[in-house]
Amino acid sequence: MSKDFIRLRLPALALALLLAACRKEAVAPSPTAQPLPEHLTLGNPSGATADENQPTNYLLSKPQYALSYHRDRGIPNWVSWHLGPEWRGSAARQDDFRPDDTLPAGWYQVQATSYTGSGFDRGHNCPSADRTNTVADNSATFLMTNMMPQAPRNNQQTWANLEDYCRSFLGTGNEVYVICGSYGRGGTGTNGYATTLDQGRVTVPARCWKVVVILPVGTDDANRVSTSTRIIAIDTPNDNGLSTAWGSYRTSVDAIESATGLDLLSAVPAAVQQAIEARTDNGPTS
Ligand code: MN
Ligand code: MN
Q: Could you tell me where the DSSP H helices lie in the chain?
């Protein structure tokens, strides 16, 4: 083969391949190329969709938060939300715990009373105090699809302390992304150990985890996450004997991914994910 042949034909071959690649992209755009809803800006950790044939990973994408619901556990796998200053205001806590009637027809709707007398709190995943801009937005956090049976000391102290700490970043020019959830089976509330509530319709998780990403207020958030972005990840026992110091439960995002099978922060560039997910935060806790 002459050098001339290579010089003439290789660019033509490259052009043909490029055109083929472009044509393929136009026909079948990658799902990750679609714009993500606000609360899934950093990714959809389980690839959840609003497909009732996927009852263990059913996407509920609400204006106030997004979640993957597990019909047979009666709790979410994960809940994800954006918390910027615009989400906070003066709306009062509505306390209107209620079933979520947006679930597919025929699915059991966990009731406001499903946890009554169990020794576990109706623990918010997306907290009431993160949605105080309007009454409607606050009320949305009281849907039972946003709850998990949480040991009272975990909910009211350990978890609540981290929720407060997350909100504290808003006052210093930051916005926050939070993804949390629970896994495993069996926890210990104020009436002792239990695996389920409401005649088996609600699973008591063994562990409650949370991942927090703190960014200065800005745009194009997934691409702004860098190796110096502060990420706080905790994995706590759902046991009323736990410590109230959330900092003692810090772990890496990688550890939560291994425990849950989720891919967290999947919209963050892969090289950045690899670095930040391996780290365990050791910053201040208040
Ligand atoms: Mn709570
Ligand atoms: Mn990840």
A: 3-27, 135-140, 152-153, 160-168, 221-224, 253-260, 270-277
Distance 16 CA to ligand 1 centre (A): 57
Look up 124 and say whether it is catalytic.
yes
Q: How far is the CA of 257 from the centre of ligand 2 (A)?
A: 7
Prediction pTM value: 0.88
26-77 pLDDT, tens digit per residue, is 444 455 556 789 999 999 999 999 999 999 999 999 999 999 999 999 999 9
Cβ-proximal residues to 144 (8 Å cutoff; 6+ apart), any chain: 97, 98, 99, 100, 109, 110, 111, 112, 114, 122
66, containing H or E segment:
strand 66-70
CATH number of 37-277: 3.40.570.10
